[in-house]
Amino acid sequence: MADPHIMLNQLAQGLRPMSQGVAWFESLNTEERSSTLVLLAHYCVQARATAEDAPESIRRSGLRATHTPAVLLVRGRIDQQLRKITALTPHDDRLKAFRLLIAVLAVADERRRERFCADGCGHAWHRLATPPQERPHERPQEPPQEPPHEPASER
Questions:
Q1: Least CB-packed of 51, 66, 96, 109 within 10 Å?
Q2: What is the pLDDT of residue 146?
């Protein structure tokens, strides 16, 4: 399993496509999905997500405002709503919760970077790189070719 800390931050920072994140999340067992959602909610709180982040987060997640996680996000204190979102049990709602929480983290972390980290910071998750297999214009370097051997008679 990929390191969830790195995977979640790369998804929130747009360093990995959401389709890859969804595939990764769906590959997890039920317990791992639950712990991933709890970890994501924790990251959202650490990034200082606010109720004002809800509309943009819902838009970025691609969810309709009527989907259960989206409805929960806009109702009350965000820290309480994040906990409720992590407790959703139907598979479809958990996947929607994953997409939404990634979007909440993205919105809150972008604001945090602009306000507190613009001149540099010590946050390791702000120095992640795009995984090599995701860099579209970068091809692996080929090993250097050895020059052909000269025949002994030409030396």
A1: 66
A2: 43
Q: In which residue are the tokens 């929960």 written?
A: 72
Q: Is 26 helix (H, G, I), strand (E, B) or coil?
A: helix
Query: What pLDDT shows up at residue 149?
Result: 45
Q: Which residue in 73, 74, 75, 97 sits closest to 25, CA to CA?
A: 97
Q: Which of 53-57, 94-98, 134-138 has the lowest mean pLDDT?
A: 134-138
Model-wide pTM > 0.85? no
Distance CA 82, CA 153 (A): 78
Q: pLDDT tens, 20-39?
A: 999 999 999 999 999 999 99
Measured from the Cβ of residue 102, the count of other Cβ atoms closer than 10 Å reads 26
DSSP 84-143: HHHT--SHHHHHHHHHHHHHHHHHHHHHHHHHHSTT----GGGG----GGG-TT-PPPPP
Structure tokens at 128: 């992640």
Residue type, 59: R
